[in-house]
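Worked example (supplementary).
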Amino acid sequence: MWTDIVMVLLILTNMMVLGSSRLRACIRIVATQGVALGILPLLLHNFELHILIFTIISVILKGVVFPLMLLRTLRQLNVWREDDPYVGYGKSLLAGPIVLAFSYWISTRLPMPFTIESPMLIPVAFFTLIVGLFLIVSRKKALTQVLGYLVLENGIYAFGMAIANQQPMLIELGTLLDVFVGVFVMGIAIFHISRQFDHIDTDQLSVLKD
Amino acid sequence: MIWALILIPFCASLLSLLIRSDNLRRYLLVGAAIGHSVIMTLSWTRNFLPILNGWFAIDLIAQLFLSISSFLFLMTSFYAVRYLKNEKHDGKKDFEEEKFFVNAPEAVFTACLLMFLAMMTMVVSSQHFGILWVTMEATTLVTAPLIYFHRHHRSLEATWKYLLICSVGIAVSLLGNFFLAIAASAHNGVSIPLMRSDLIAAGSQLWTPWVKAAFIFFLVGYGTKMGLAPLHTWLPDAHSESPSLVSALLSGALLNCAFVGILRAFEVTAAAGQIAFAQDLLIMFGLVSMLFAAVFVIGQADYKRMLAYSSVEHMGILALGVGLGGTAVFGSMFHAINHSLTKAGLFLIAGNILAAYKTKNAANVRGLLSTIPASGLLWVAGILAITGFPPFGIFLSEFVILKAAIDQGRYAIVIAYLILLAIIFIGISAIALRMAQGKSIKPVEVKSERASSFLPPAILLTATLALGIYVPTHLSDVLHTIASLLGGY
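After joint prediction of all chains, the assembly is encoded as:
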């Protein structure tokens, strides 16, 4: 039951981040999504100490550290809105349900060799993943692209939850650490971009080409 | 001993952040590089014990690729001492746009350089697919500050593209890891750990559809980092905007690391009985990469970008060689050595040219042989080597791959391969050889060339020349054994 609520929450946050132009709101939505995902291991697996520790670490990182880092960057930059993305918000919102339907279809085509706790997990993971990729390619602001990267990682993380029994937790921790450093380095890069260009629109990063 | 390989550069990296004296830090860089390569040399005569439950071990593939990386790093570190001395200034004029820019702090640069070596050691020696992934992502993150050493907007643009494209690529390969984990979940409830040796031993028990899916995702994900077209888009920007010694390491060592990732996935796919599927994909990516390189190298205005596209070409040849199977796999492994040596040497010389002429535009560089004779001569030799001219090693390895394709009777591939090689040969030599001849157009202030700036590339190019003339038996045995692991001989 709780797992399904988390799944619905994931779908909703994906739709919201597709339709929202305010960067601060987007950061909060992705944070909510991160927290929802973070508690997923506790719901899916039997209670064990290392799972609890893992849950706490990922909730703190995804729900507190990442959003604080990004909000801090936002304050330094004084940029609050994504004004005209490559794909408009109406079209993005329309694309959402289509992608969701596609994700359900593709997950019926991929037979799992073992049973998964929630039948929604795989399609929702695919949905989150595609939404992340979509955000990276359809938005101009560097910050929104980082958010897209986080959503993409969330999707992969959700997928990983389905098969967590096959993987040692240490690897998952390493993954989280990489994402953490990744967001950190990207945050620094965004800061430098805004100082060099006076904005963070990546479509202006077009000097280098053939 | 593997601990030492990882910890020497790791600790040196942390130390270099603490050291205040620039000179001492440069000695530390060279010292760590020497220590690493001495231990790597030892690995050819004795076996190193695996560490951490076998997560890290020096198998043959690791031995080969880590030796290449270690040697390149040693040469680049010699080069780096002089380079860092010259780059010590508080803001100077950018020669392309006449704007002022500063460099990143030298301590950070050195620390990232050393951490890069530590991470490469871990990538190449890791036997667990998860660890491989984690450390591969770490190499992306530590090299990003290296590309952004010159703090101007072009290098920033290159860094941003590099970060975003490679991170997405690596995220895709994480999905490949998960697919592999699904493939390894056995029928009777006991799943196989994602260790390379366990997966290969249990090859026939893996679920084939998921192994295939995993290989595709690994190929796309790590292929992005390796620079296989059409996923190579970050590569020309990053290689042309980063300092030349970083370009040398990116091209000669980092791309190989990603190639190792693909090879590991290839081994498992082959063990699961899907070798033909994986080979076809590699051939396709290989030829497409060569095609992209051929299209973009013709008339390329920027000589560092030209070298970057040549890297795309050679990565394509590596993939093609493994894809063809048979003796071509041996050729591909041999090609990896030759390409790394030659390309790293060429990028270091490109750095010398850039320092003397202050332009990356090939049309503005004339008369290399008369203005900076040592570098000019090496440039000509390097260009001949990289385009596959005998007696350099690349000629030999490209020829082995060609011969394997002919022996297999795959004439369509033979024709495409030869035409693309010819186009790239013409494209590169037309741009680069013109730079060597004639008289310099604009006055160049050239101080006498320093040995520290031309000796490292000279050693690298001599090594590839030597390999073209004589391949040591021990080395060729190792290459043949690796080839037999990868479905060739």
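Two points are worth noting when inspecting this output. Chain B touches chain A through 48 residues (CB under 8 Å). The longest helix of chain B spans residues 153-183.
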